[in-house]
């Protein structure tokens, strides 16, 4: 007999579509981004993705809109825009 | 070996080869942890001692240790237990088989350091198996059995056991210690693969994620079933331990001279020896008295006690605890199982001394109330003084 406990396995979206919680959306001006990766490093939800080609983008399905990426961005290219 | 109840627990935990001991060292911590720290520092015990910043963190460290597959122990008391409470529930509902000794003490205010059982009983719905020890010897024996019960695959729930402060925790008596080889045979090393909460670094999992209303009841029911099975596991653990130790052990409860009894007292913890003395004294005077000593409080052995004393006319319960607006916790709980009158006594709150004479008085008082045809509607606060 194997006792059962509630567990979750590491997988994309294991905690659900947390993007639904967002009030403000981070919007990145890709043209001005210098690819320093500070936002990618600081994002508590790993909602910022680093593509193989070096491109950076935000997955809005999971981004909770906490604004940390906008705060830490040294070039100030991430603006928080109210969701409508 | 001459040991206090506290040190008896320490040596029991050492014999059980606990691998992690986490504790907050300031008051209300006890000598249980002091002795363990000493044994580990001297290299007599091979365990990791984690000094944390609070009881809340102590239990968190124990939970995490179990998730790493290590046998974990902590001890606390009164306000420390209250502060730990959130993580006590995490251990119980998360099914981490930690064991913990609780030196039972009165919760403030007014400030007190003396004995009462309300602190441990306030944790009774946390998913822990709960026991109360009668003697330093039983504290040592229980420290070892607790791991076996907690880690049994049919149970996998944490176990806490109480020691009455001072009358048990700080009172020295002769304690027989078992040979390490004998304990090792009784309690094999914890096999992490049998732990559902074990985190294998190669198969990462997390606990405590959000669970919606559609599944929660089912997980609660799994714990209910574990507690149903635990009664048998506790009895087995006691029976096998009595074989290796050569001393009788109590699993769920102790039946003391109840078979032909007309009046039975029900109590728990270190005062039980005095209740038994009162029973013996009354027997010498021709009163057919008996006693039920509750060793295990969760799972509550109500059906088993009903079977043992269901026919007894007069039952007197003695609670060293209180639930405001409800009554003595154990007396009220037992009443739910018994059909006859149960005379409920509240005694020894805040560490007020209870003697053999008090217990004789309680048992005689219950008999008298039954004779006068007084029902069991009112509880009696034994020895209550006028408030000026």
Portion in beta strands of chain B = 15-25%
Portion in helices of chain B: 25-40%
Strand share of the residues of chain A?
A: 15-25%
At the first level of CATH, the class of chain A is Alpha Beta
Description:
The complex is a heterodimer of chains A (about 80) and B (about 400). Chain A is built from 2 helices and 5 strands; from the N terminus they run E-E-H-E-E-H-E. With about 80 residues, chain A is an alpha+beta fold. Chain A has a single domain (about 20-80), classed as 2-Layer Sandwich (Alpha-Beta Plaits), CATH 3.30.70.20. Chain A is about 10% helix and about 25% strand. Chain B is an alpha/beta fold. Chain B has 2 domains: about 1-245, Rossmann fold, CATH 3.40.50; about 255-380, Rossmann fold (3-Layer(aba) Sandwich). Chain B has helices at about 5-15, 30-40, 55-65, 80-95, 120, 135-150, 180-185, 215-245, 270-285, 300-310, 330-335, 355-370; strands at about 1-5, 20-25, 50, 70-75, 100-105, 130, 160-165, 170-175, 205, 255, 265-270, 290-295, 295-300, 315-320, 340-345, 380. In chain B, the strands form 3 sheets. A 7-stranded mixed beta sheet of chain B has the order 3-2-4-5-7-6-13, sandwiched between helices. A 6-stranded mixed beta sheet of chain B has the order 10-12-11-14-15-16, sandwiched between helices. In chain B, strand 14 (about 315-320), helix 11 and strand 15 form a beta-alpha-beta unit. Classes of the chains: A alpha+beta (about 80), B alpha/beta (about 400). At the A-B interface, strand 1 of A face strand 9 and helix 8 of B. Strand 1 (about 5-10) of chain A pairs antiparallel with strand 9 of chain B, so a sheet runs across the interface.
């Amino acid at each position: 007999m194997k006792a059962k406990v509630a567990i979750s396995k590491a997988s994309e979206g294991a905690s659900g579509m947390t993007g639904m919680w967002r009030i403000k959306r981070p919007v990145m001006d890709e043209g001005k981004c210098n690819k320093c990766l500070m936002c990618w490093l600081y994002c508590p939800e790993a909602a910022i993705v680093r593509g193989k080609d070096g491109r950076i983008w935000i997955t809005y399905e999971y981004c909770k809109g906490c604004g940390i990426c906008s705060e830490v961005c040294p070039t100030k290219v991430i603006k928080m825009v109210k969701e409508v | 070996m001459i040991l206090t109840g506290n040190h008896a627990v320490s040596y029991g935990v050492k014999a059980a080869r606990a691998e992690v001991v986490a504790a907050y060292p300031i008051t209300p911590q006890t000598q249980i942890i002091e002795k363990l720290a000493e044994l580990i520092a001297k290299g007599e015990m091979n365990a990791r001692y984690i000094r944390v910043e609070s009881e809340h963190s102590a239990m968190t460290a124990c939970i995490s240790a179990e998730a790493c597959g290590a046998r974990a122990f902590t001890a606390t008391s009164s306000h420390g237990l209250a502060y730990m409470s959130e993580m006590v529930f995490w251990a119980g509902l998360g099914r981490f088989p930690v064991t913990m000794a609780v030196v039972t003490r009165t919760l403030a205010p007014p400030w007190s350091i003396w004995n009462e059982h309300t602190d441990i009983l306030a944790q009774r719905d946390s998913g822990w198996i709960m026991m109360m020890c009668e003697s330093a010897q039983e504290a040592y024996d229980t420290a070892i059995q607790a791991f076996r019960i907690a880690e049994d695959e049919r149970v996998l729930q944490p176990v806490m056991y109480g020691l009455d402060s001072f009358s048990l925790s700080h009172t020295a008596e002769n304690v027989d210690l078992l040979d390490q080889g004998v304990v090792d045979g009784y309690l094999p090393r914890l096999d992490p693969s049998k732990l559902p909460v074990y985190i294998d670094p190669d198969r990462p999992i997390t606990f405590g994620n959000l669970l919606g209303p559609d599944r929660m009841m089912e997980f609660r029911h799994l714990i209910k079933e574990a507690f149903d099975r635990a009664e048998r596991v506790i009895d087995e653990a006691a029976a096998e331990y009595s074989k290796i130790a050569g001393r009788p052990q109590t699993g769920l409860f102790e039946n003391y001279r109840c078979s032909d009894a007309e009046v039975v007292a029900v109590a728990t913890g270190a005062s039980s020896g005095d209740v038994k003395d009162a029973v013996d004294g009354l027997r010498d005077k021709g009163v057919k008295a008996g006693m039920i000593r509750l060793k295990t409080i969760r799972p509550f052995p109500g059906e088993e006690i009903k079977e043992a004393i269901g026919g007894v006319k007069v039952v007197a319960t003695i609670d060293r605890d209180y639930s405001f607006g409800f009554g003595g916790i154990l007396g009220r709980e037992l009443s739910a199982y018994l059909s006859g009158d149960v005379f409920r006594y509240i005694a020894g709150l805040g560490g007020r001394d209870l003697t053999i004479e008090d217990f004789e008085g309680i048992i005689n008082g219950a008999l008298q109330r039954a004779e006068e045809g007084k029902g069991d509607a009112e509880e009696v606060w034994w020895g209550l003084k006028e408030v000026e």
